[in-house]
Amino acid sequence: MFDPVDPLATVDECSPIFHGVGASDRGSIPIGNGELCANVWVESDGLHFYLARSDALSELDRTLKLGEFVVGAVPNPFDQASRITQALQLRSGSIEVVVAGDQGDVHIQFFIDAQENDAFVRFRSDVERDFWVELRQWRTEANWVTASASMFWGDEDQSGAPGLAEVRESADAVESLPDGVLCYHANGATIVPHIISLHGLDSAAEAVPDLLTGRTFGTFLCTDRPSEVVGPRLTVRRAHSVNARVSTFSSQTGRPALHVSEARRRPINLDECRERTAQFWIDYWRRSWIVVRGDVGTQAAMTDEVRKASQGNSLPKLTATAASAVTQAYVLSKWMNACGSRGAMPIRYNGALFTTMPGGGKHLALESFGETFTAEPLGHPTIHSNPDERSWTIEHLWQNLRLPYYTLLAQGEPDALLPLFAYFRRFWGVNRARARLHYQAQGQWNTEMTLSCGLQSPGIYGLDRSDVAAGYAKNRWGGAINLSPGLELCKLQFDYWRFTADDVFLEREVLPYAQDLIDFALSFYGNSEGAQIEFGPLNSLETYFDTTNPVAVVAGFHRLLQDLLGLPAHISIDRRSLESFRDALPAIPTETDSFGQTSIAPASQYEARRMNVENPELYCVFPFDLRNSIGSDLLMHTWDKCLEKSGVFRPRVIGEELGAPCFAGWQYMGPVAAMLGRLDLAAHALESNAALSNPGFAFPAMWGPVYDAVPDTDHGANIVNTLQAIVLQSVSDPESRLRLPSDWTIDFKLFQPNGSAVQGTVTHESMRLSAL
């Protein structure tokens, strides 16, 4: 028999509670419903929150906030900081604020409806007050935001694309209506036709998806009581209780008045919405869980620059933490992923939908990464400095966006993969056009970095095309990772099919895509019949440039053929052609050092100069998992060689040089260690990564910055993937548990690759399992 484990009790223990208020969004608490997300915090003038949704895409393809809202009252209860408590209630998916005031208590509840993309505020006061809520918007004029989107252009001369350089983000419109405040952004001319021309695809323009033209997104603010509406502020006089709702919308049909009409048809039934939202989160937490006991709490190291930048921050004090730092890191990271995993667009690696103001009055820049993400912002958002700003690029990067999605099947959330598949499904037409026009090949060409139209910005693709071939990205890092992203996506689709047994999805989505990947390889890299295919020159991820037979591509095709040829007999495939293609594939590249030790190589031919800290050799374990066809000795030798060459198995120092090696951020050393049976190393990485909270923020899961942003979406996913890999490795290989830390006890309920649930308890001495 199992000792009873109550996942809701664990969630309650991991729910952070804060005392006092802050002075900026550095005190914000993240919350969401899968599409609509908010940063919520309290200042001395009231409750503040940003709203954001994944499909609020501007003319420049930037994901913009919907605005900042402030909720206040007269007399003001929020100026008594010592009597204010803020709590994230994970069990119910809500934020509770209590003010114990001299003139009576005030209770505020904030939540985002699990069913509709609406945010609710419930305000209750022991004494009558004038309640007000105000929209604060910063996009007050047309704006190019050159400083905050500099990587859109990179080092390219804008004069080389005058039409593209003229595209602006239009100003937002704010309208005071009799019953509320409407704010919306209506896209004008967009970058899409210019990006199509840049890539030489005018003849195939109809194949390029355009999610920007005609897009209108915004909010409608109203209350359940008669109110005065003056400008962007709504006021309810002399009330003990008020319920406010902010309805949000985004579509390419325009006409925001229709969205207002639709919102008006839905009464503000806060109790009903709150109950269904609470039930959604209760069901979510009961679906799967991991509870660790006995882990060692550690303290993250940081640079003097970051320490100094965080010292001036005014933050509410965290007053309650869980006994297990690893458990709390896991729970809060799951929460943040779940808040944004059901949107129309993928989760953003550089901050998700929880971006905040750049700090210290500066723009985000590589030379001041740690300082700018940590320091308190100077004032509230303006058109020149605001939380719309992101680090790195506006593209989605497969290498970075993938990690949260690798957590989902083990948690029993296959449906949350469907938005990711839908995003890349839009690119089938443009990928086929690029294969045909750029490479004179069949099938689909796929690449690492994509705007919402499937192509790349001028800073990645390059403006001057006179000396480069069509399809060649001048940015030789992420812009030049080709083929392997599509193979990885296809492997994830096969994982989804194995989990769900959805043969319709397999027939309509997976098999046609897999065939396109093979057709491209045969038509572009193939040669005389029966001869071995040679892939190259291609990058081996971002680490080695212009190699032959990069391991990620070769391993990806080997995995693809395993998945295809392993299909049951009732699935119709051309096995003879697939076997012929498999036989023409190059072998997994290996190399032998001066001591006679053989390990997997980054490619069959490559220049030893490393351009990044990633280890492509380990793609044979994660994500392509060829452990059953590659000997364990070879894999362990490869692990040792990768650590020797890259030095990545070390904790992150917050604020250190961006390219410094470590096992944090978008790295996957923890999951790989677990999958190779080195649960001791995976647990060490996990304990270190669980401590990497940014010191300039109140919320303990505002990870980083490591390589990407604050919050570092990949770092949270790294934590979740590592812990789940430890558990599932213990289940599949019980002997590996002997390497667990002796003080650890893990209670869990997770899902196996075939979709079956498994529950149990594991220590280094014993394991008890119950298949459910």
Protein described:
The protein is of the alpha+beta class and 772 residues long. The chain has three domains: 18-280, Beta-galactosidase, Chain A, domain 5 (Distorted Sandwich); 288-381 and 632-772, no CATH class; 483-622, no CATH class. Helix content is 29%, strand content 22%. The protein has 20 helices and 26 strands. The strands form five sheets. The chain has a 15-stranded antiparallel sheet that branches. A four-stranded antiparallel sheet has the order 15-24-25-26. A three-stranded antiparallel sheet has the order 19-20-23. Strand 3 (36-43) and strand 4 form a beta hairpin. The longest helix is centred in the middle third of the chain and has 23 residues, at 503-525. The radius of gyration is 26 Å and the shape is globular. The two termini are 14 Å apart. Residues 19-290 form the DUF5703 domain.
Mean pLDDT: 95
What is the total domain count? 3
Query: N-to-C terminal Cα separation, in Å?
Result: 14 Å
Instruction: State the share of residues found in helices, binned by percent.
Output: 25-40%
Largest sheet: 15 strands, antiparallel
Assigned CATH architecture of the largest domain:
Distorted Sandwich
Number of strands: 26
By CATH, the superfamily of the largest domain comes out as putative glycoside hydrolase family protein from bacillus halodurans
Global shape: globular
Specify the number of helices: 20
Q: What is the name of the CATH topology of the largest domain?
A: Beta-galactosidase, Chain A, domain 5
Estimated radius of gyration: 26 Å
* Poorly predicted spans: none
Derived from helix and strand composition plus strand pairing, the structural class reads: alpha+beta
Query: Which CATH C-level class of the largest domain is it?
Result: Mainly Beta
> Beta-strand percentage?
15-25%
